[in-house]
Amino acid sequence: MTDPQISRTAVVFPGMGPFRFTDVGEFLLTNPHARRRLAIADEVVGYSVFDRYRQSDADEEAQYAAHTQIAFLTVCLSLADWAEETLGERPELCAGPSFGQRAAVTYAGSLPFEETVRLTAELARCEEEYFRQEHREAVTHCVIHTPEERLREALAELDAEGEWHDVSGYIDQGFYLVSLREPVLDRFKKRIGELGGYNMYTMWPPVHAPAFGALRRKAEEEVIGGFEVADPKLPVVADQSGELLTDADGVRTMLLDTFNRPIRWPDMVDTMREQGITKVCVAGPDNLFGRVNRTVDTFEVVAIDARKAMRPRVRRRSARRAGR
What we know:
- It is built from 13 helices and eleven strands.
- With 324 residues, the chain is an alpha/beta fold.
- It has two domains: 9-133 and 211-310, Malonyl-Coenzyme A Acyl Carrier Protein, domain 2 (3-Layer(aba) Sandwich), CATH 3.40.366.10; 138-203, Malonyl-CoA ACP transacylase, ACP-binding (Alpha-Beta Plaits), CATH 3.30.70.250.
- Strands 8-7-2-1-10-11 form a six-stranded mixed sheet. The chain has a five-stranded mixed sheet with strand order 6-3-5-4-9.
- Strand 10 (279-283), helix 12 (293-296) and strand 11 form a beta-alpha-beta unit.
- The chain is globular, with a radius of gyration of 20 Å.
- GO terms for molecular function: [acyl-carrier-protein] S-malonyltransferase activity.
- This is [acyl-carrier-protein] S-malonyltransferase.
- It catalyses: holo-[ACP] + malonyl-CoA = malonyl-[ACP] + CoA.
- One of its GO terms (biological process) is fatty acid biosynthetic process.
- Keywords: Acyltransferase, Transferase.
């Protein structure tokens, strides 16, 4: 067992995959940290994030809409708040692969929550505008149990056909995010299956592809350039390189690099291990980063999810039982 005297903890905010209102709705409605943060978010965007998220839950096109992103951000940070208050967790650094970097920079103190909400809403608008004009057919697809040589084989076949593709994420051995055109997605999925791999979900808008350099420039000019990023109070692990960030310039660069540099979770794990981290608290809905072999073989993993943090329901006694 790890000596508690030398145990060090990191908080990890997961990337945003598909998540359902039914999984987090009660937490958002009843948890005091979530209610406080939702009130702030509502004031920033001018509508009820909770109501809009609830109403659009069954709409696949709203899966990564601005209000859904803000709801996810709120859940993750509220769970981290709860873990501090209830479990006594005191992380010494934080990390946030993919969308999780926004919660990480907020938790670390580089951006106030209200500013991150505004940033999220404005970036959602920026991305939607970009992908209406550029790379209109691009998606990002998740594959697992696919050895690198088999993935390269499938990608080489796309090359032979003149089809564009980028690797957008390195999650674990045999676990990748691949960006490509939606018209060839079914054929690519079939080929992955033939090569012994397994297909997970597909994301739109697409993410982290080197081909999206123009989106990075647009985001810097129209959105991120207008935000004042502070030095983090906690070190932040960059999700593109595993670099340990301790100043505002590094955090700002990470926020921009998310558009056109792939995420590298193994590098992040290596950095946390080198910093003496022995336990990671994964704050938020997660079906990837806290579960892959690279993580569970390296750290004690504590999943901080909405089910753990919900207040127990108080059942009223019936009038008969109350003696009335």
